[in-house]
## 1
Amino acid sequence: MTIDFTPFFEKYEALLKAADEVFGRVREEYPHCVKCDEGCSDCCHALFDLTLIEALYINHQFNRTYQGRDDEKAEVVEKANRADRQAYRIKKDAYKALESGMTEEEILADLAKKRVRCPLLNAQDLCSLYDYRPVTCRFYGIPTAIGGKGHTCGKSGFVPGEPYPTVNLDIVQQRLYQISEELVSVLKTRYVKMSEMLVPLSMALLTVYDDEYLGIDHPDNEKADAPNKEGDANE
C-alpha cells in the first residue's frame, strides 16, 4: 500500500482517548448508574456502522494483532462472515420497510432492537481487540444523544428524563467524517465520495484495503462515486 495512514490513525486515536476520558468522568460522577463491567457484552450485540477511518483502523489492528495466528484469525473471519450476512439481511428488510411506507424514525427504532453478535466477542464474552474498539463502543453505557434524542444502555441506572452529562454523538460523527475526508483528499482516489462510506465492523474485518480497493494509482480510470462492492455502503 502506498499511503501512510499513521497521521490519520493518530488523529483518530486522539478521539478515542478523549472518548475514554469522557466515559471515565461520567463513571466517576455516577458510579451507581454506569453498570459496565468485564463480562457484560450487551453493547457487543448492537448494530452500528463505521466510518472510513474507523474501518481502516480496526482492519489494520486486526491484521497486526492476528499476524502469525492463522487459526484464530480464520475463526474470527468466519464469525465476521456470519455477522455480515445478518447485518445485510437486517438492512435489506429496513429498506423494504422504508419503501412500504414506514417512517425513518420507526425504522431506526426497530433497528435499535436488532441484535448481531460482534465477531470480535470471544467465548469468554470479552472483546478480542478491546484496546482498539470503535468510538461507539467506548460511549455505550453513558447517556448519549443523536439528532437531539437521548439514549442510554438499558442495563444502566440512569433514570429517563433526569438531567445527566450527555455525549452529542452527532459532533463525534462529524469529526470522524472530517478525518476520513482528510484521508481521502491525500489518497488521490477515483472514489471521490469514499469518505461518506459506512460499513459494519464485520465488513471492515473482511475487506482487503489495498490500492485497488481504495482506487489509487489508477490514473487512467475515470472518477467514480465509491467502490461498487456489496456492503461498502448502507443500503
Note: The longest helix spans residues 70-100.
## 2
Amino acid sequence: MSEIKSVAIAGASGTLGPHVLKALIDAKFQVKILTRSKKPGEFDAGVDVVEVDFTSVESLTAALKGIDAVVSTVAGMAIKTQTVLIDAATVAGVKRFIPSEYGSVTTNPKVEAFPLYENVFQIKHHLQEKANSGQLTWTVLACGAFLEFLFAAGAAGLLDFADRKATLFDEGDNRLSSTSLATAGKAIAGILKNSEATKNRVVKVSEVILTQNQLLKIAEGLRPEDKWEISKVAASAVLKEGLVEFSAGDFSFPVISKIIKGTGFAGETYGSAYDETDNELLEVKELTEEDLKKIVAEKLA
C-alpha cells in the first residue's frame, strides 16, 4: 500500500499537467492545484485550487501543509525555479517530489553541460541533496519524447506527413522511445501508487521505440502512390549548429528545437531508446504495429 494519499500539482494547466490531473483523480488521490492566479472555470469545481507565490518558500510551504507528494509539470524557464518549490516541500514535510523533466535523454550525463539540460541536472542534484539528508524522496520519470510531438504537423515531428517530406537524421535508423501525454500522466500516478519501488531513482517508461525509416515504411505501405521527398542530415551537425546559435544569444524555438533534436534524435549517442523499462511496474502497455499504422494513417489523411 502506497504511503502517498494527497498530491499537489504545479503546472496543471500546461501541456502535460491536465493529463496528470486526470490520472491522479482517476487513481483516487486527493489533489491540490498550485497556481499563480485562479481563472474561473479553468478546472472542475470539485478540484482544490490554491493561489501561491512560486518565488516564496513561505507561500508554498503554507499551501503544501498536509501534502504527501508534489508533481511539477512546469515548463521552460520555470524549470530552474523548482528549487524554491523543493525547499518549501521539504519544510512542509512532503514525502515525494517528481520534478518537471519527462525527457528523452535528460538523464544522460553527456548532455549535462548543454543548454536546456543543465537546469534539469541542477534540479536533480538539489533533490539528491535533500534525499541524502533524509528530508525528501524523489522520482524522475523518463518517458522518451511525447508521442504527440513526434507526430506533430509540419516539419516539427519525425516526418512531415502533410507535405510528404522526410529529413532523416543520420540514416533514419536512430531509435527513440516515445510515450503519449495521457500514458505519461498514468505513469506518474503509478509512481505514487508504488512509492517504495520508485523511491530516489529514475523510472523509465516507453510505449514504443520508433525510427524514422520504420514510420516511412508504414506510410509508403499505406499510400504507395505517394512520393516522398527524402533528405538526410547528421544529428551531430544539427546539435552543433543549435549550440553555436544558442551561445550567440539566439534563444528562439527553432534553435531550441535543433538542440533537442540533435540529442533526442541521435539514437544510441545519448541513449534515447529504452530497452529496459518500468512498464510492467507502472502498467504501461506498449503500442502494437497496428496501433502505429492507425496513427500514421490518420496523419496521411
Note: Residues 6-142+181-204 form a domain with the Rossmann fold fold (CATH 3.40.50.720).
## 3
Amino acid sequence: MSEAYAFIEAEKTTHGVALLCRLLKVARSSFYTWLAGEKTRRARKAADDALAHEITVLHLASRGAYGVPRIHAELRRLGHRINRKRIERVMRERGIAGVTRRRRRSLTRPSKRAVPAPDLMVRDFTDPAPGMKLVGDITFIPTDEGWLSLATWLDLATREIVGYSMADHHRASLVVDALVMAAGRSRLQPGCIAHSDRGSEYTSDELRREIRRLGLRQSMGRTGSCFDNAAAESFFALLKAEIGTRCWPDRASARAEIFAFIETFYNRQRLRKHPVWGYLTPLEIRQRHEQGHALAA
C-alpha cells in the first residue's frame, strides 16, 4: 500500500489527490495519515544518516576496531546523548562492526635450569595506583625479512604500555630494554611487581639484575598457563586484531606501525572502561590518578 501512497504523493500536483485516491481505491484519510508519518520517517532517516556518518568517522579513526560500546562512549565524550540501542541498530544496518580478537597460542620458552620467581599476582590483574604492578610479555611480528620481536611492559592500574622494545632477536636484552624504558618514563614505586611468564628471557640473570637495581619484585606465572599472564597476552591479541595480522614487507615498516599504534592510538586515544570513571584512555586514567595524588598531598 505504501507504493500507492508514494505514487499519489508524486502525482498529486498533476491529477489531484481525490482523483488519484479514487482510481487507486484508497481512502484520502489513509493517504494523509501515511503522508504525515512519511515526514517523520524522512526526518528519522536523515538523522540516522547523520549519525551513521559520525559513527563511520569514529570507526575509521579507531582503525576499524571500535564496536558499539566504544562508539557509544566516544559519542558521549563529544556531547551526544544517543541511545546505545539506536547506535547498535544503525551500525548493524550499515554493516559497521568492531574487530574480533583471535586466541593467541603460547610462545613461552621456559629455561630448564633457571629457578622461576614466585607468583605474586595470583591472577589479580587489578591495582589502585600506577607504578605498583607491571606485566610483561613477548610476541613475534611476521615480516618478509624475518620475525620482529616485540617486548612490552603494561601498567595494570592504567593499562598503559609504559615500556616496550623491538628487535630482530628475543634475547634477554629485549625485555631489559623495555623495562628500562618503563622505569624511565613512569613512576615505578619501590617494590613494584614485574610479572611475566617463565620464558628464558624472563628467567635470565640479566633481567634479574636489572629488577634488583630498580628495586622491583619479580613475579612469574606457571608454564603454559595463559591465564597467569592474561593481561599482557590480552594486549598482544588486541594489537594484532586492531592493526591487522599480516606480514609486513620489512622490519622497519612493522616497527613504525607498532610505534604509532602504541604511542599515538593505544595510550592516548583508545578508550577503555574504567570501573569507576567510565570510558577513558590509558593516559587519561594515569592523569586522573596523578590529579588525585596531588589533591591528597
Note: The mean pLDDT is 85.
